[in-house]
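Input.
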Amino acid sequence: MVESQATVGPQEGLHARPAAQFVKTAKRFSSEIVVLKGERQANAKSSLKIMTLGARKGDTLTIRAEGDDAQEAVDALVELISPDEH
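Output.
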């Protein structure tokens, strides 16, 4: 299992367009990917689940993946939502 933390960068958080882009990116990978915000967890490949996290700009999320391409998946998703951290 691979996991990394990321701070949400987009001004609108992970809603609408950023959530759709996040899910599109997650679906490129075969690994099981979940996003955690506090006690809440969401499937990274479901727009509805991602939006129910209510992630806003500045929130810290944990992205966790398990599978053959887990490291690549986590790296790509962290880069997508918090490009300034890398």
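The chain is about 35% helix and 25% strand.
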